[in-house]
Amino acid sequence: MKEEKLNGGIVNHFEPGSNPQVFNGPISGCVFAMPGANVTQQTGRQPESLSEKDEEVVNQLKPMFFGSEEEAKAFLVSIQGMKATQITDKVNQLVSEKKISDMSKHRDLWKVLHDCGIYERSESNWNMQVK
Fold first, then answer.
1. CB neighbourhood size of 6 (10 A)
2. What are the two backbone dihedrals, phi and then psi, of residue 4, each rounded to the nearest 5 degrees?
3. Hey, how many other C-beta atoms are within 10 angstroms of the C-beta on 79?
4. Once rounded to an integer, what is the mean pLDDT over residues 82-86?
């Protein structure tokens, strides 16, 4: 077994030839995941801190959320930086929770997200993913 002595008296023990992941400092804000895990990191933006452009998108999203500006803002913030499949998964979740209207979950919602550059895939792709 190999030892590595660091400043502050910390001693790490590991097998020679192994590939240890050693963290001897503060780890707040770190993400630990197993290989193959699907990790989503959020931006930490609060719904109140939306840009002017985002406010316009929220106004377009409100009808899909039964007129709720708060739900539209929360959705927009939550999908920032998500992959296309994660966005459609989130939409499916919100439809099942009755937060997004069944009548507008397809073309209406896709068009808003596509036109503002959030969901760049085709409408047919969207329709295959959103149930």
1. 10
2. -130, 115
3. 19
4. 95
Q: Which single residue is written with the structure tokens 């209406």?
A: 108
Query: Which of 71, 85, 72, 84 is closest to 114 using CA atoms?
Result: 84
Q: Amino acid letter at 86?
A: Q
Q: 5: which strand partners?
A: 11
Helices of type H across 1-131: 52-61, 69-79, 84-96, 107-115, 123-129
Q: What is the tens place of the pLDDT at every residue in 40-54?
A: 655 544 445 678 889
Highest-confidence segment of 10-24, 31-45, 92-106: 92-106
Strand segments, DSSP code E, in 25-123 are none
- Per DSSP, the three-state class of 11 is strand
Mean pLDDT of 80-90: 94
| Average pLDDT over all residues of the chain | 83
